[in-house]
């Protein structure tokens, strides 16, 4: 059986291009951190440079995007992908059920004669993946503004949940490639805070 593998110094590009209805997401993975990347996040852990785009836009070359990319350790990136692949569908479905209940309750309720009110709300899911903070909020009012917010220290990025889910579907293949070039993945990290 023949296998094609990247060189250890070569970047691995893991991406979903933007389309007419969703943005894109590109992860540039370095098994060995390139000197030109000037990574100060974690010197011993391989790095991932995330770049997101709006609908219909293309990704910038790495030489430009590395200055503004969201940088995270490879182990945390893999933990994030594993979580999204295995658990996100159920969490998202549970959030949708709660939103549907809120929408049913949002019809005007009569409080007293000629006085009524409506009820709206949001559902929030938060989780830590070591030093990466994951935040997702769904509102019963505005469904078009639902983005996953990822943050490390004071740097953050917004990602379309469907794009991240599609990227996470390739988790097993990515781990297989990384294992073949010598990366030792210790397994998922994270702590569920609330739903």
Topology, please?
Elements: E1 12-16, E2 24-30, E3 47-53, H1 62-65, E4 70-73, H2 74-105, E5 109-112, E6 115-117, E7 122-129, E8 132-139, E9 148-152, E10 155-159, H3 161-168, H4 171-180, E11 191-194
Antiparallel strand pairs: 1-2, 2-3, 3-4, 5-6, 7-8, 7-11, 8-9, 9-10
Explain what the structure shows.
Helix 2 (74-105) crosses helix 3 (161-168). The protein is elongated. The strands form 3 sheets. The protein has a 5-stranded antiparallel beta sheet. The model is unreliable at 36-42 (pLDDT under 50). The chain has helices at 62-65, 74-105, 161-168, 171-180, and strands at residues 12-16, 24-30, 47-53, 70-73, 109-112, 115-117, 122-129, 132-139, 148-152, 155-159, 191-194. The longest helix has 32 residues, at 74-105. The protein has 4 helices and 11 strands; from the N terminus they run βββαβαββββββααβ. The chain has one domain (12-194). With 195 residues, the protein is α+β, with helices and mostly antiparallel strands.
């Amino acid at each position: 059986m023949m296998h094609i593998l990247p060189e250890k110094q070569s970047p691995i590009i893991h991406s979903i291009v933007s389309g007419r209805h969703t943005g894109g997401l590109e992860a540039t993975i370095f098994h060995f951190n390139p000197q030109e990347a000037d990574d100060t996040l974690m010197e011993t852990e391989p790095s991932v440079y995330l770049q997101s785009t709006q609908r219909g836009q293309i990704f910038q070359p790495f030489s430009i995007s590395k200055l503004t990319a969201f940088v995270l350790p490879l182990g945390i990136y893999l933990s994030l992908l594993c979580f999204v692949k295995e658990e996100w569908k159920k969490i998202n479905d549970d959030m949708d059920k709660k939103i549907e209940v809120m929408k049913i309750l949002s019809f005007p309720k009569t409080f007293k004669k000629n006085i009524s009110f409506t009820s709206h709300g949001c559902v929030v899911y938060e989780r830590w993946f070591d030093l990466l903070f994951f935040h997702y909020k769904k509102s019963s009012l505005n469904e078009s503004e639902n983005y996953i917010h990822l943050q490390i220290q004071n740097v953050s990025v917004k990602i379309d949940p469907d794009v991240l889910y599609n990227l996470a579907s390739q988790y097993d293949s990515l781990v297989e490639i990384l294992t073949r070039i010598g990366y030792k993945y210790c397994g998922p990290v994270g702590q569920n805070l609330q739903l």
